[in-house]
Amino acid sequence: MTKILVVANQKGGVGKTTTSINLAASLAVTNHSVLLVDIDPQGNATMGCGVDKAALEISTCEVLLQEAQIDDAILALEQYGFEILPSNGDLTAAEVALMNEIAREQRLKFALDKIKHRYEYIIIDCPPALNMLTLNALVAGTGVLIPMQCEYYALEGLTALLQTIENVKKTVNPGLKVEGLLRTMFDPRNNLALDVSEQLKGHFPDRLYRTIIPRNVRLAEAPSHGLPVMQYDKTSTGALAYLALAGEILRKEAKL
Amino acid sequence: MTKILVVANQKGGVGKTTTSINLAASLAVTNHSVLLVDIDPQGNATMGCGVDKAALEISTCEVLLQEAQIDDAILALEQYGFEILPSNGDLTAAEVALMNEIAREQRLKFALDKIKHRYEYIIIDCPPALNMLTLNALVAGTGVLIPMQCEYYALEGLTALLQTIENVKKTVNPGLKVEGLLRTMFDPRNNLALDVSEQLKGHFPDRLYRTIIPRNVRLAEAPSHGLPVMQYDKTSTGALAYLALAGEILRKEAKL
Ligand SMILES: Nc1ncnc2c1ncn2[C@@H]1O[C@H](COP(=O)(O)OP(=O)(O)OP(=O)(O)O)[C@@H](O)[C@H]1O
Ligand SMILES: Nc1ncnc2c1ncn2[C@@H]1O[C@H](COP(=O)(O)OP(=O)(O)OP(=O)(O)O)[C@@H](O)[C@H]1O
Ligand SMILES: [Mg+2]
Ligand SMILES: [Mg+2]
Question: What is the percentage of chain B residues whose pLDDT exceeds 70?
């Protein structure tokens, strides 16, 4: 069964896009079939993979508005071994247009249902908001991966996110579960990060990924070259961490 | 005339809230009358000032929906010398409710018009999105302060933000202008940051604040104590940088 991983956190700048791109690339490099879905109007996952968002004729926007088939929007990124459903600023208009539609939160699910059998993993990069776009991702997903910067605002916002996931589970997607919380941009010399990490271990002992993503400037440099870090600098601590995350996810899968 | 500074950038995690709180505190410490407006449903500016967002009976949400007077929502933070219009997750519902209202983008402006004469500065902390809430702030504002993390995605997203500001200026708020771009979380040992900073100097020579906010862990620790950094650790490089920013803004003002 296809695993549809929703990478979500309404707190901004916690590493959602960096995690989505590099997890997709790591799963692809270990010979899994992967689709990366960008449902953020910023189009960062799109640009970070070297796709020019301004040149897109069909994107996630048209797919959600049912103005185009998902197959016509998906692009193959042969050099990285995975495919992408790209997005751009048009998605902001889609969010407003969806407001008055019936089953508006199911649009992405309807679209992915047609093609998901082709992929072992689908990774969805969400915008920094608990809005209609993130809701569409949660309704379509099988699991949620929550990137967590170990700082106060990110920790404080976790309750609202878990509440939203619970509401989606109770109503339209009973199979949805939190796959794990991923500590990102982690600097072990920073007491605040160590404190917050201890709190996460206390609250979520069995849902914290063992893999921790360190702060590593190669992760911030890679997108300016339109490359996942695996292709930009495969020996960097960032690339190795995301490869380790892919390994942890695959091992968990195999045990089920 | 009251200066209404909109702190906006749809890129997440670039230091909007940190800048809003600490600029408000720095202007207050230098004896200016200041109102901090939180228009982000995350309610980070509210929590970062020690106000419990879960306990609010009236907040920005009721004010935008015209269900309460702004005076009934404003809280005085005597210990910091400024006032706050607080917010919480209710604001997400307000955004949807506003969609079908006439002059929906003017709601904040109508509310602030009634009380702005009491303040020399009003600082508005925006959510990480170019949505109806950020639009309300841009329509109400006299100037925009753009926090910029010197990394690829933040630089790439600048065009869309400047475009939105231009659209607001052409239609409903001709007086709006970009006050300045503020480099935040700046680490001079990082080549990427130096690169991006040079690009900003090239593109925006006269709109880049001279003050640069360094990466300083005290800025990330302060909100967990509900304190502006000025009150948490006034000798920290973070506190001194925001004081310098206030000084630069005041000096620019005086020259006009
Ligand atoms: N582990 C890391 N080490 C260093 N830099 C990182 C790391 N992870 C992400 N970054 C950088 O930090 C910034 C924020 O990361 P990213 O954009 O992936 O977060 P996001 O949650 O997707 O943000 P948004 O809320 O805007 O969607 C980016 O400039 C990115 O390049
Ligand atoms: N100069 C700095 N040095 C170190 N940490 C910082 C600095 N500025 C902000 N931070 C921390 O970085 C994180 C992001 O900052 P902040 O929340 O202010 O950004 P934001 O743009 O308001 O985010 P959002 O897009 O979610 O509203 C926070 O945890 C904050 O404490
Ligand atoms: Mg992102
Ligand atoms: Mg904020």
Answer: 100
Q: Extract the tokens encoding B14.
A: 């670039």
CA distance B221 to B65: 34
Question: Considering only CB atoms, which chain A residues are within 8 Å of B160?
Answer: 42, 89
Instruction: Please indicate whether residue B180, judged by its CB atom, sits closer than 6 Å to ligand 2.
Output: no
Distance CA B77, CA B72 (A): 15
pLDDT given for residue B256 in this prediction: 76
Ligand number nearest to the C-alpha of B241: 2
Strand partners, B177: B143
> How many A/B residue pairs have CB atoms within 8 Å?
92
CA-nearest residue for atom 16, ligand 2, is B15
Is residue B77 very low, low, confident or very high in pLDDT (cuts 50, 70, 90)?
A: very high
Q: Evaluate the CA torsion angle B198, B203, B205, B210 in order and state its sign.
A: negative
Chain A residues touching residue B92 (CB < 8 angstroms): 130-131
Q: Does residue A247 have a pLDDT over 80? A: yes
How far is the alpha carbon of B177 from chain A, nearest alpha carbon, in Å? 22
* Secondary structure of A85-98 as H, E, C letters: ECCCCHHHHHHHHH
pLDDT above 80 for A256: no
CA–CA min distance A44, chain B (Å): 7
**pLDDT higher than 90, residue A31:** yes
Give the H/E segment covering residue A148.
strand A143-149
The three-class DSSP label of residue A52 is coil
Distance CA B162, CA A174 (A): 42
Q: Do A96 and B92 touch (CB under 8 A)?
A: no
Please check the confidence at residue B100 and state whether its pLDDT lies above 90.
no
Q: Is the pLDDT of residue B255 over 90?
A: no
pLDDT tens digits along A210-241: 999 999 999 999 999 999 999 999 999 999 99
Residues 6+ apart with CB under 8 A from A7: A16, A19, A20, A23, A123, A124, A125, A126, A144, A145, A146, A147
